[in-house]
Amino acid sequence: MNPFPMVLADLRALRWTAPAIVLLVALAIGTGVAIAAQERALRRGSAAAADDFDLIIGAPGSQTQLLMSTVYVQPDALPLVDGRLLNTLFKDERVAQVAPIAFGDVSRGYPIVGTTAAFAGRWDRIKPSEGRLFAAEGEAVLGADVLYRMSDTITPSHGVAGLVAAPGQTDAEEDSHRHEGHGYTVVGRLPRLGSPWDRAILVPIESVWEIHGLGNGHASEETKGDSPFWKQGPAAGSSPAGAEERIGLPFDGKRVPGVPAIVVKPKSVAGAYQLRAQYRQGGTMAFFPAEVLVSLYGALGNIRDILVVASALNTVLILASVLLLLLAVAGLRRRRYAVLRAIGAPRSYVMLVVWLGQVTLMTLGCLLGLGLGALATQAVSGLVAQRTGLLLSPAIGLEELLPALGLALIGSLFALVPAALAYRQQVVAGLRG
Question: What is the pTM of this model?
Answer without folding.
Answer: 0.73
